[in-house]
């Protein structure tokens, strides 16, 4: 390398750092400060912001209280169910769209448009729609009493599937874009029937997308406050709801912080396992 | 099955709304031979191959393989193999799993499968690459994996869709030889699609020249290349001068006045419209005035491995290509005398 | 293989249906996803003072009622104000960063990617709680600063992704050509690259706007009396009663969302949502 090109490279690097500095500083500040604040507050001696002292009692309280543990198991169960259902639906959707790409742009636009509508509004619409479904089923004499779709565990999962499905579908679809139709034909010429093609050629290609979409969905489903708050009707308690009520109603800053830390730790483990598994499975593919 | 009807394609038509496809194709192929479908891109040769594979359903006509009508049989039950232009190796599987896929689909037990996969990989010289992923191999290696995957199942017919077209020239020539040797040694029946006539010549036991969805002519490579019957074939192969002629009784007249004695029935009933004359069947001498010769002007000169190719324009406007030994050439723009050895001319019909 | 396959009947049977262009499954899913939005709109045009679905008559009366309702109106104005500030701040941060990512060294690129990954994988609830604690500690919990900062953080990843994708589509040789014609680097960027970036900047602005305008998770924690954004007002209203007024306000939000989607479709940024930006061959 000549002196001139080395100097130009250095200049390029300097300009790059300069241009990205606002973003890097902003995110670093906005991520580190709140994270450290939450961790510090979670071990604070009193339930106040800026309280000093040190105790782990907020953590031990969590794991000794049955109400809290129930909330945690609710949260995880909701998240796992949401991941499984969106995974299956997303896989079928993405495969169908890959194989039958008629009006692909329009289909994708319609899939993504709901993501740009306010979440509260979408839940409200879902509630109205589920009431109509019950009315319809009763009218048709298919059920005697309304199904517990709204204000229930089921309702929370339905709403989360509605929210997360487009993300999962797009993640799987991006994976399947590596699916060349000649791969399917090649498998057929080698004697593979429909199911073999799906299981051995299509599904392995979709795995990275399923993992990526699954991680995203798991985190979103376990971290949401608004869905259980609106769809649960106060009957299903989850960790995010406890965090919110601790702060907004009781000013229990330390308790809320400890719950938040626990939630993140509980979330991070499956996410890391998922990402690791996903990376290993696709090694050498890219 | 013996004879020439191991693989029979009868009256196959497949039209596309946007044009293209094939129209009323009839072909037969004996066991153990390689048929090359030769033609320009878009002539329908790949469509025909996909109909044989069962990847396309024909509008009309049928395919018989080893005495059995397979027109209605789905692809995966035809016991065929296909090598694709893009090779279509499964990216999520290792080389071993790719090659073993067809055996697995046929329920071959694991131990036997492994042994046959190893044999097939050894045949194509990739025994050490079994645990790699396709992406980690070079183009030529990937092509050989695709070939191993296709032959390991001992298919009733091996279909190849321009399998060498995305490779460098040197590797292409090398793999061509390997492919021919394997096909002979294993006694494979094959259908090979290409637009490259040197590949057709090297690989085919028979060649079918295809144009606009129809078979123009079929024959052995020697027939098709040395004694083509159709004007289209001669023009597509571009190995000889195609000179238009007008029949005049038992004689044929060229635009520049030469008269050729035609054998009786040269066109097989159809009128002879042109003759093919190889560039080495024209003698060229510098200057003008030699008896029985025409005077022309050299328009272009191109050096080729076998000699120097001259494009010479005759006074009536006809251009012909003449090959002479290096050192005997003439400069561009100079006048030369041409003498045609019409005895070597091949009559062509439309 | 079985003998039946050889039978002439098998041959004449229509072997393979002509493949449909659109799958029924994807169609049904799409309709189900859009249905809640349609239901809300239908509930809003019903003239009766209670929620009725399907509506038996048509009236736009509840829309004017919704816009006249003071708490809806003030929070709508607040939401719009915050969203516009978020757009400006967000673009000021992301546009230079996008240039750094596409034209800078690998080190810069990796740093920015890492910075963008953190807000994506952190649950919103932790972010919101952390922001609230931070603002309380700094005695700023009653200002709009927290809402703006929080919304900018949530919108950054998608805005940056859109801008990087837009910049990556611009041939760097255009700038090189300008340089050979005598333009300085900055002039070349302003004259050649920036105009080509405008659709991407438009998309990024729309994403920043709608992500702020629609945000619930951050706003919920940072809202205080007198600074409640529209989605939070709707949430609180719906906790007590669901009537055609709230349906009408919700419909307005549906219309805003669909309008943004249409604009994004026009600018080619919609596909960036949910990581669908990778175009197929």
Structure report:
The complex is a heterotrimer of chains A (286), B (350) and C (281). Chain A has one domain (59-281): MetI-like fold, CATH 1.10.3720. Helices cover 77% and strands 0% of the residues of chain A. Chain A has 11 helices and no strands. Chain A has helices spanning 3-42, 57-64, 66-99, 104-112, 119-139, 153-176, 181-189, 194-223, 226-231, 239-248, 253-281. The two termini of chain B are 35 Å apart. In chain B, the strands form 5 sheets. In chain B, strands 6-7-8-3-9-10 form a 6-stranded mixed sheet, with helices on both faces. Chain B folds into 2 domains: 7-226, 3-Layer(aba) Sandwich (Rossmann fold); 279-342, Nucleic acid-binding proteins (OB fold (Dihydrolipoamide Acetyltransferase, E2P)). By secondary structure, chain C is an all-alpha fold. Chain C is globular. Chain B: Residues 7-237 form the ABC transporter domain. Chain B: InterPro entries: AAA+_ATPase, ABC_SmlMolc_Importer, ABC_transporter-like_ATP-bd, ABC_transporter-like_CS, ABC_transpr_FbpC, Mo/tungstate-bd_C_term_dom, P-loop_NTPase, Transp-assoc_OB_typ2. Chain B: Keywords: ATP-binding, Cell membrane, Ion transport, Iron, Iron transport, Membrane, Nucleotide-binding, Transport.
Question: What's the SSE blueprint?
Answer:
The complex is a heterotrimer of chains A (286), B (350) and C (281).
Chain A: H1 3-42, H2 57-64, H3 66-99, H4 104-112, H5 119-139, H6 153-176, H7 181-189, H8 194-223, H9 226-231, H10 239-248, H11 253-281
Chain B: E1 7-15, E2 21-29, E3 34-38, H1 45-53, E4 60-65, E5 68-69, E6 80-83, H2 95-105, H3 110-123, H4 139-151, E7 157-161, H5 169-186, E8 190-194, H6 197-203, E9 206-211, E10 214-219, H7 221-226, H8 231-237, E11 241-244, E12 246-248, E13 251-253, E14 259-261, E15 272-277, E16 282-286, E17 294-304, E18 307-313, E19 319-324, E20 335-340, E21 346-349
Parallel strand pairs in B: 3-8, 3-9, 6-7, 7-8
Antiparallel strand pairs in B: 1-2, 1-4, 4-5, 9-10, 11-15, 12-13, 13-14, 15-21, 16-20, 17-18, 17-20, 18-19
Chain C: H1 8-12, H2 24-44, H3 61-68, H4 70-103, H5 106-121, H6 124-137, H7 145-168, H8 172-180, H9 185-214, H10 217-222, H11 230-240, H12 244-267
Pfam families (chain C): BPD_transp_1 (PF00528)
Transmembrane segments (chain C): 22-45, 78-102, 114-138, 144-168, 189-213, 246-271
Protein name (chain C): ABC transporter permease
